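BUG: 3D viewer hangs when loading the predicted structure for this chain

Environment: internal workstation, default settings.
Expected: structure renders.
Actual: progress bar stalls at 90%.

Input used:
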Amino acid sequence: MSANLPEQYRRALSREEINALPICRYEGRVCLVASPRELERAAAELLQERVIGFDTETRPAFRVGEHHPPALVQAAGAQTVYLFSLRAREVLPLVAALLASRSTHKAGVGLADDVRALQRLVHFEAQALVDLGAIARRQGLEKSSVRALAALFLGIRVPKGSKTSNWAAARLSAQQITYAATDAWVCRALYLRFSALGLLDAAACPPA
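Structure tokens produced before the viewer hung:
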């Protein structure tokens, strides 16, 4: 069973308090997978990880009834964040294998929506998903976005500047790459903090 949330984390931070926190961006190694060799390396590394931070990005819709498929998958391991553009359909088998792996736990927020969208592109049965937002809500927290959780548990502010940019573009900007990598990296960092606080079910979510 998971532990109760320590008192210091039970209060919601205001927008002003979050905006006063230091901005944090991922500064480690990022690999935008663009070749068969990079895909092979990503598969070898990610499928050996016990925990990865996981997220997707989708081209924004600005009209009622408009929908787009996911355009980018982000997977953050201990040493590298891998970004998979779904313009290249050859990455889909690895994405499916990663999400179907029982030994690699995928930590993120709103994972059910991500999984449903990806299952429209490739068949897989998702295993070992750890929805950090759901865990936070079970602990009584009302705000459970990546940004809110990063502020509360990590003491950092995650910038949102590239959220509504065109993720389906043939070439991502440096700002988009940093934004996407940061989101996945933060999810992994949150998993580790939740684990340290005893908020995860030890049987289902082993420590990294």
